[in-house]
Amino acid sequence: MKPRTSGDAAAGASAPLIALDVVVLDTETTGLDVRNDRIIQIGAVRMHGADILETQVLDVIVNPGVSIPPASSRVHGLSDADVAGQPNFAEVAASLRDFVGGAVVVGHSINFDLSMLRNEARRHGVPWKDPRWLDIALMSVAITPGLISPSLDNLALTYGVAIAGRHTALGDARATAAVYAAMQPRLLEKGVRTLGEAENLGRSATTLIAQQQQVGWFERSSGKAEFVPTAIEIGSRRAIDSFLYRQRLEDVMSGPPITVDVDTPLQEAARLMAERGIGCVIVERGDDEPGILTERDILRALAERGPEASTVAAGTLTTVPVIAAPASTFLYRALGLMARRNLRYLGVTGPAGELVGIFTLRRLLRERAFAMLTIGDEIATAGRPRELARVMAELPSLAARLLSDGLDARAVAAVVAAERRAMAARAAEIAEAELLVAGAGGPPADYALLVLGSAGRGESLLAPDQDNALVIADDYRGDLDAPDDWFVRFSTRINEILDRAGVPYCANGIMAKNRLWRRRLSEWLETVQDWADRPRAETLPDVNVFFDFAPAHVSSKTGARLAETLRTEATAIAHGSPRLAASMAEGTGARNAALGLFGRIRKDGSGRTDLKAAMLPIVTGARAAALHHGVSALPTAQRIREAAAAGGVSVEQADLLADIHAFLMRLILNQQIADIEAGVQPSNRVDLNTVSRQDREHLREALQHIHLIRNLARGS
């Protein structure tokens, strides 16, 4: 995903600071009265995330049309002689607007500068629109309560920034940019990752804001300072073809693939393609990796060799390997991969990495589909955490559009989960490449990176954290506890990359960098057997999150088989342990956490209700019942239906529970989208004051029926 330029649309609240395009701006003026004083110098420098783009600067002197007071000249060093013959504000306004474009403006006490610019524009009759902004003075006060002074000099001292050219517009802009860059790790420590969250952090500096209001640095409307940024303009996004976000490769592929031997003559291969109405065949190459032969390969051979091409062996023209994607891949991701690799045919693989089908796309469909993509294959080309963060920032808008298009909340959550798995996979690829460059070599053994919990089930919402693990081949003889071990360095870097990209570290430590979640296959199976033999309350959270695992990235086909073996054998162990399943099902019998006395919905002090807690019995009960009945499905609704069929629970009850699950997910998703747009960190707590009366009634009824999950879980 390319960085925004000055011509791009303004950033939304979900835009990550790590990848935010900003213009750091400062002005020098004839005085401090924003209504009557004039601008005499404008300085600005562009930044991308925390990177200062030193070559992209604006530095102009402006003729104010009035005499500069000597007291002001002593501060910034500019006199009437310096501004004589320089352009006035009207003549520089267009270049300033072009330089800022749709970027967020950052400054120190930036509302002084914006107020000066606003009043100059009015004075000269030129258009001006206030940009979205961040003030490092306001943020510094919020980051460091009790800060002696939020002056630029004090902040530069605090963050170790040297100021060159103090009280020149460009000098102060550069110093402000350096302070803003140095602040970003502190912002991350505070959990501030997005533009909206940074804006809200600044709003908490109420005393300093009040002082700025008193001197007229804010536009006023009905006596109140205008301090509300523009919300995400979802309607400005590209159109979405929701079919691409509903269907997976397994829904549209042709399979099994048609194969020929490596020695098959081209004439025979061409005849087979014509008979079957296909544009490619898979060429089997014995124990070697299979390849692909396409109609274009045959046409090229005919053009180059003429009639003799008919006897050429298929293996001589085969492309190896077959570029492929798992059968569960959503079409929008497959199309993004095909666009990036310029493919007409895409292999489709099964659970163990075996080729199970071929997906083809005609040019008309291809062009139509690519035009409708909102998120394509940007993750696969990301080389840095901030590029992954840009994709994360698109998810709230994508989710909002898909919901408004009528897509079921579970399907939207599946798309979000697919992106989270893709991010984990790309983090692994980046970490592998970094270790190779560092001289550590490639993977010393086969492995699979697993995502756990909601990402593994395909039910991710918009309040992410990391739940991941590694399963490593048993033939690895390294020390998985040693700090310099390849897999220790690898998993630690994966978690670092994801955290920087906007998927925070798991508060419960369920991450591959921690030894408990980094094991050889046999170690994992021993652990599962221990869980089965001795179910206990303290390990139950780990058990629950583990059994929702899905592979995100594998080192090879052997790595894929590791994940599949772990799935099969762990499920068999759980299926054979009634005690474990019963222990997992215990939570479903507890009182519904969202209901109080007399069936009233519980609210906290802010009027919100934790609907994840309400949903937990359904998710837990479905998981326990699925393991008891040997159901391998991961999505909750599928587990409910398959376990119900195996356990003799009515279809009506199963459908009701699945519908309740989807309804709760929709309410949470809608709230999270609204919170992200408002710069509030998303959670699973829903403000019932924003829920329609009809949905509140449905919610009350739904919460009263969650206990039906016990009927499903009792079979365990």
**What is the radius of gyration computed over CA atoms, rounded to a whole number of angstroms?**
30 Å
Q: End-to-end distance, in Å?
A: 47 Å
Mean pLDDT: 87
Widest sheet: strand order? 3-2-1-4-5
Instruction: Decide which structural class fits the backbone.
Output: alpha/beta
CATH topology of the domain at 17-230: Nucleotidyltransferase, domain 5
Bulk shape = globular
CATH-derived architecture of the domain at 17-230: 2-Layer Sandwich
Give the count of helical stretches. 29
- Tell me the fraction of residues in β-strands, as a range: 5-15%
Query: Largest beta sheet, briefly?
Result: 5 strands, mixed
Which CATH class of the domain at 17-230 is shown? Answer: Alpha Beta
Number of strands: 19
- Give the uncertain stretches in residue-range form: 1-9, 221-237
Write out the CATH superfamily name of the domain at 17-230: Ribonuclease H-like superfamily/Ribonuclease H
Amount of helix: 40-55%
Give an overview in words.
DNA polymerase III is a complex, multichain enzyme responsible for most of the replicative synthesis in bacteria. The epsilon subunit contain the editing function and is a proofreading 3'-5' exonuclease. It catalyses: DNA(n) + a 2'-deoxyribonucleoside 5'-triphosphate = DNA(n+1) + diphosphate. Residues 253-308, 317-378 form the CBS domain. It comes from Pseudorhizobium tarimense. The structure is a single chain. With 716 residues, this protein is α/β, with parallel strands linked by helices. Among the domains are: 17-230, 2-Layer Sandwich (Nucleotidyltransferase, domain 5); 589-713. Helices cover 47% and strands 13% of the residues. It contains 29 helices and 19 strands. The strands form six sheets. Strands 3-2-1-4-5 form a five-stranded mixed sheet, with helices on both faces. A four-stranded mixed sheet has the order 16-15-14-17. A three-stranded mixed sheet has the order 8-9-10. Helix 18 packs across helix 20 and helix 21 packs parallel to helix 23 (557-575).
